[in-house]
Design brief:
Layout lengths: L15 H37 L4 H4 L1 H18 L3 H10 L2 E4 L1 E10 L2 E9 L8 E6 L10 H4 L1 E6 L3 E5 L6 E6 L6 H5 L3 H9 L15
Antiparallel strand pairs: 1-5, 2-3, 3-4, 4-7, 5-6, 6-7
Helix pairs in contact: 1-3, 1-4
Length: 213
């Protein structure tokens, strides 16, 4: 059983395959739009220069802007996208409903917005403060999650995935203070540890500049 699981009546569980498809499609759209903008910034000035034979500063200026946009898009894909990590977690953990998800704070980074959240369960205390990022790279906080609760797959001292009922919103979670939750991981037992290892949740999120202080 995962840390702090919810055993009371809960709404119908979402379709995991459908949630993953929706988030992969959202990610593809986001990357396509960014690459399209990058292509326009680079290709249009080059085409105009060839047609008109001019090389003015203002005509060349969009090109480095487009190159910078491309570099930021690559970094965003590397550091701000968690769909594949969420897929691993959802493969190894069942989803359990938690009626209270509280957003404590929100921080903007160039890779995406980082949310500090607490996933609580009635009758249990000591739920760790978690950092959450939108799996598909969106920046906004999912609407209605604090009123409706959310589905959790994972083990909070290690990390997990949060899915909002009635939507395709999916958030990747890691403990806000990895060192502080070390004792809970050491006390987890062999079965929980093995599952976390299969889901690749046993280490700090290595390529997560956006989730560091």
């Amino acid at each position: 059983m995962t840390y702090g699981s919810q055993t009371s009546a809960s709404p119908e569980a979402p379709d995991v395959a459908q949630i993953l498809r929706a988030n992969r499609l959202a990610l593809a759209r986001l990357m396509a739009v960014r690459l399209l903008i990058t292509g326009i910034l680079v290709a249009v000035p080059v085409a105009i220069a060839r047609v008109t034979g001019t090389n003015s500063f203002f005509l060349v200026l969009p090109i480095p802007v487009g190159v910078c946009a491309f570099i930021l898009t690559v970094y965003r894909a590397l550091y701000g996208v968690r769909v594949s990590q969420c897929a691993r977690v959802l493969r190894d953990y069942p989803m359990e409903f938690h009626p209270r998800v509280l957003k404590k704070r929100e921080r903007w980074t160039q890779y995406g917005n980082v949310f500090e959240v607490r996933v609580t369960t009635r009758g249990q205390h000591g739920a760790p403060l978690m950092l959450a990022v939108n799996a598909a790279g969106r920046r906004r906080w999912p609407e209605g999650v604090e009123e409706r609760g959310a589905w959790l797959a994972g083990d909070l001292p290690f990390g997990g995935v949060l899915v909002v009922p009635g939507s395709n919103a999916m958030l990747f979670l890691k403990p806000a203070d990895w060192d502080k939750t070390e004792r809970k991981r050491e006390e987890a037992g062999a079965e929980r540890l093995a599952r976390a290892q299969r889901a690749k949740l046993t280490r700090r999120t290595k390529y997560a500049v956006m989730m560091r202080s």
